[in-house]
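Would you mind writing out a protein's amino acid sequence and the numbers that encode its backbone to help me picture the idea?
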Amino acid sequence: MVNVLLNSELVHAALEKITDFFEAKMRRALACCGDLIDICYFADDLGTQRNLIMSRRTYREVLQPYHRRLFSLARELAPHASVMMHSDGAVFDILPDLIDAGLDVLEAVQVDADGMDPQRLKDTYGDQICLHGALSVQHLLPHSDKRTVFSECRRLVEIFATGGGYIAAPTHAIQVGTPPENVLTMLRAVLGEEDYEAAIATARL
């Protein structure tokens, strides 16, 4: 991060190499199976629990051009696929820049982070980007009782899924120590009783 501010030439040289590598990798992969791909997935954490890791200006000057290159190439090679990027944390303020770079899906929305209020996210960006996640692996799933897990998962689905544009999912990998009954309760709340029972029956085959 110090180099971003004090040694920008080095940072851009490194990012050029990294981006060239992933562009070449993407060309090879999508040449083989691009017609079968639904989502092109990228990852670059841009937020902490409380704020962005860099200013929006720094993002636009340093990282956005490389994101734009990768997202644009994904669209060119797999035009029917969506562009998804992982960044948890407090990224509310930078979402316009990610959308401008070509992002379709933000994974995984971390509602525990500052400024990531579900209703605010949906009201502000719900018609511009698909939101993925929101079911907290930090607090809700590991530490709540089943009744709370069910009601909170239903509440989040009702907020985010209104009008479409939501993929219900945990905010990250479910952590060791999370009660298994809470994971099943999450699935029941998200899927509804009929689809939940069908999913469990299929899993037992």
